Amino acid sequence: MLTFTLKRLLSGVILLIAVATATFFLAHAAIPDPTLGLLGSAATPEAQAALAQKIGTERPVIVQFGDWIAQLLQGNFGDSWRNFQPVSEQIATKLPVTLSVVTVGILISAVLGGVLGVVAGLRPNTWIDRVVKAGAVVLFALPGFWVALVLVMLFAVQLKWFPAVGYTTPEQSFGGWVQSITLPAVALAVGAVVMIAEQLRNAIIQADRQDYVRTLRSRGLPQWRITVHLLRNAAPASLTVLALMFVGLLSGAIVVEQIFALPGIGALTQGSSQNGDIPMLLGITVITVVFVVIVNFLLDILLGWINPKARVK
């Protein structure tokens, strides 16, 4: 198990280095002159030259990359080119908002998707099974921003159950925090619920056809014990989908945060990309990849614990 864990850690580190390197050069290729976005179209050449010298973009890209990597190894993302404040501090103030929405969205997806998937898998070809299969096609195809707008119009504007925009921290009001993240989390979770339910349903139906299940039934085991065995065999596929959904919800949160006016990573990413703030974009990318690596690492360890054969693979 130790060798398996070390291999997963090493692969995560390699992924982080590869993504960070690719993002750095792609960002500089896409924004060859960030001073124009930072100063605006009315900036004079003198002002642009002065800013370029201040932020160091007049140097060769490979030199800038070396300096950035050196800072990154020290846990320093540098300073924002827009306000010259530390990137890490600005991300730290925005990240809890995004993680709140994504975490609640994942919980909603796991609970509802798990319940629907188990019921549909244990009762194939019934009405609830047909509803899950149809919902997996319809709901997953709906654009996330459209779902968010519908939720706002129905539950915020008409019913007034939740605020349409804004964010309340748990320190200010726990109830207000729950209200402010409920609609964004539901908007993120809609597609994930049906995907998890469909995957779990298929995994349970496939496991139910195995010889060992027929053997358990022939021995007279109660249905709840057979269901436990089915869930254990269906868990790897479902957990993999859940991890992929976490990555998808992180990217989807950028759009949802704009609709609900949440002060999270989404707003920070949009503003940084519009202004050419490359250090901020790089910091956000690295932090996002770190979370992806952590989630995948935990998934691999959990799957290795559930199924020892996965350690060999």
TrEMBL record:
CDD domains: TM_PBP2. The chain crosses the membrane at residues 97-122, 134-157, 177-197, 239-260, 280-306. Residues 95-299 form the ABC transmembrane type-1 domain. Keywords: Cell membrane, Membrane, Transmembrane, Transmembrane helix, Transport. It comes from the Bacteria. It is found in: Cell membrane. InterPro entries: BPD_transp_1_N, MetI-like, MetI-like_sf. PROSITE patterns: ABC_TM1. It is a multi-pass membrane protein. Belongs to the binding-protein-dependent transport system permease family. This is ABC transporter permease. It comes from Leucobacter coleopterorum.
